[in-house]
Amino acid sequence: MTIDTISKVTLKHIAETLGISITTVSRVLSGQARKYRISQETESFIRNLANELKFVPSQLARNLRLNRTTTIGLVIPDISNPYFAGIANKVTVEAHRNGYGVILCDSQGNIDMEIESIENLRSRNVEGLILCPVGQSGQHLKDYESNNYSIVLVDRYFAEMSLSHVASDNRNGSKIATNYLIDKGHQRIACLQGLHNTSTNEDRVKGYSEALSGHNIKIDTSLIAGDSFSEQSGYVETKLLLKKPRRCTAVLALSNLIALGALRAISEEGLKIPDDLSIISFDDQPYMAYLSPPMTTVAQENAEMGQIAVKMLFDRIRAPHTNPGGGILLPTHLVHRKSVKEISLI
After folding, report:
1. In Å, how far are 91, 173, 193 from 214, measured between CA atoms?
2. CA 154, CA 224: separation in Å to the nearest integer?
3. Of 3.20.20.105, 3.60.9.10, 3.40.50.150, 3.40.50.2300, which CATH number belongs to 170-300?
4. Which of 32, 190, 203, 326 is the most buried (most CB within 10 A)?
5. What is the mean pLDDT of residues 80-84?
6. Is the pTM higher than 0.85?
7. Is the pLDDT of residue 4 over 60?
8. Residues 120-154, buried b or exposed e (16+ Cβ, 10 A)?
9. Closest CA to 170 of 29, 282, 49, 294
């Protein structure tokens, strides 16, 4: 017996007991008594008996009749990363506030798992999708540009696509951090980058390069290293950078995980922060303030990012034909701590 059938049996029981139609009972219990001019006396009889029978309306059956599931999907690359966990938390809270549930999928930074997660969520009839994409290309999302399915990209976006998105102003954040290091006397500044050809990485590298060019500092491409937003990449690339004959004096790590790997490499080489090497990291996580020394960071508004993504998604769900794709870039800011030392220009 289906949930819908159970609800009908209960409605029938109430109707037969009171000697009225199932339709009248249904209209009262769905809050439509005034619309259909059902008397207050009849409404009272129905509600009292429903309470006595502990009648619980079937939300699932109601949603199926309305072709709704009141559920959205969320796909993120790594739930263990505090940055993405913060986005997921805010998406869940905001969705719940709007009467929706969230089905969360972790793509584990794998494009095939991302595609599988999207297909899985679509098969569950989620009403919309918030996606933190991991791919370097949005080719697998092309179909969503040409239909009315509600989807919002968060943290990363594809410049060549018209899908709605919300992300950080990574370019300016990186520029501010690099300018700060330059103002402190640093010129040989290494950039530990993440996954190539992603909007996040490309925008941050551009900001770094623009800051150097703005101070007439020649860009040394050998100081731009890495290919993943991971601890391993940060560790390996920092080890290599520190073996160069002419060492860098500062490092800009383009993610919190890259920074953690870099910290281990720096420690293993017997160097001290900031006396021997200055460092700034993207992503201001709570633990950054408790490192020794506390780390200067570029803070992103990931909670606000999640909140805005939900609003954008619901705007599209409610009026898909009147909400064309568009992008929002949230400002970043520098959090000053103790990981940067002022040095004299040589």
Report:
1. 38, 15, 20
2. 26
3. 3.40.50.2300
4. 190
5. 90
6. no
7. no
8. ebeeeebbbbbbbbbbbebeebeebeeeebbbbbb
9. 282
